[in-house]
Sequence to fold (298 residues):
Amino acid sequence: MREGAEGTPSASTATAADAGTATSPSPLLEAPALKQCCAQFYASDLATWLLGESFHPGGLELTARLGQQLALTPSDRVLDVAAGRGASALLLAERFGCEVTGIDYGEASVDAANAEAASRRLAERVRFHRADAETLPFTDGEFDALICECAFCTFPDKPRAAQEFARVLRCGGRLGLTDLTSVRLQPPALAGLMGWIACVADARSVEEYVDLLQAAGFTMETVQAQDAALKELIQTVTGRLLATEILAARKQLRLPGIDFAKARALVKAGADAVAHGDLGYVVVVATNRNDPLSHCSS
Ligand SMILES: C[S@@+](CC[C@H](N)C(=O)[O-])C[C@H]1O[C@@H](n2cnc3c(N)ncnc32)[C@H](O)[C@@H]1O
Fold:
């Protein structure tokens, strides 16, 4: 980790990337506020209730498969970018014996992830820090593998995040990126702030993800559609949202600030988009070819 990087950014102090806002990522909110809203939602109990312990289509089964595709071994140092509450990082450490560092923008998620690592006696090998994916607090080439699951689409500055992935990976290091894909402009129900938080508003096509990663210096190894996993997750969320709404209507659950009509419209629009082939999920495995010192051997 870079010296002095621990603890940055804080909720109240914008990072250099935040302050930079070189591009206007979204008409919704400025980049730091978008990241904060997304982080707050995924740190909430509601997110865990709606999505389960891992916050991406395919769940931990898909993460385990990704670990296999990345050929992880106990000697690997792995970075999980936007690790949420740490479910994937902990699974990879348990399953493959590797050392895992997780970062997330949400302080509460990072605290929950570190507590879970300690309770599973994995704190020696799995650590979580608060950081921004667009300004990773690590030195060049520090990791052998990097995963980023269902989060790249929420980063306002995607080219910069992709460059950061390449910078912190050693030459020949492996990237496993899984994300929502979108083939056309999304309907209004998917385009607002809720859509951004639900990872759909700024989802890109597979070709765009590939272009972004290639521009950062990655060579694609495999690109696999996993649309059925997204369909399944949307079905789960639809059922749980309905149950939540019923409990809230009966005053058995207090969830101030939730607009159920909007949430329902979002989930329905998501299901329709998947059914029409407009929204999907992809797993990309790539190799880092960046080698500023021309020492790349693998
Ligand atoms: C859909 S969740 C995925 C979490 C985890 N990767 C998983 O699959 O379970 C998206 C995560 O991205 C994090 N996030 C959003 N923007 C971020 C950023 N700029 N830097 C780091 N984390 C970010 C959020 O806090 C949230 O935990």
Confidence is low (pLDDT under 50) at residues 4-25.
